[in-house]
Amino acid sequence: MDQTKEPGNPADHLANERTFLAWVRTSIGIMAFGFVVVKFSLFVKQLSLMLSTSIAVSNKGYSVITGIVLVGFGSIMSILSFIRYKQTEKQLRMGTYQHSSVLLTVLTAFICLISILLIVYLAETA
Predict the structure, then answer these.
(1) Cα 55 off chain centre by
(2) Would you state the torsion angle of the CA atoms of residues 100, 78, 112, 63, taken in this order, to the nearest 10 degrees?
(3) What band does 92 get if pLDDT is binned at 50, 70 and 90?
(4) Cα–Cα distance, 52 to 61 (Å, whole number)
């Protein structure tokens, strides 16, 4: 009996492409959120200077650091998703597809870490 596997059909390749595009949308969303965090922090600082009020604006810089980390992680995630796309494409052509959840695990761990840091930050500034 022949054990060779058939290469992926067009539906498999299209599903791989849709998955890649979903990862790209997710990475763009993370980068956009990071951009908003940084710009909102700058907006609050400038608003307090314009109004010359005694609004307590934190000079710790957590918002800027958090935003930069989010933008950086979003761009790294887009690169990793492209690598995963190419690996899956190669496996589908060879008929040797192996599922991997490494990218999902990294994304979930990162989002949990950022969420915890944001909760701590909000609790400190409240």
Answers:
(1) 32
(2) 170
(3) very high
(4) 20
8 Å CB contact between 49 and 75: no
Taking the C-alpha atoms of 72, 100, 82 and 75 in order, what is their torsion angle to the nearest 10 degrees? -10
pTM score, whole prediction: 0.77
**Residue that is written with structure tokens 């980068």 in the block:** 31
Amino acid, single-letter form, for residue 48: S
Return the percentage of the chain with pLDDT > 90, whole number. 51
Q: What is the 3-state secondary structure (H, E, C) of 48-110?
A: HHHHCCCCCCCCCCHHHHHHHHHHHHHHHHHHHHHHHHHHHHHHHHHCCCCCCCHHHHHHHHH
- The label of the residue with tokens 């690169």 reads 79
Q: Which residue has the tokens 């990071």?
A: 34
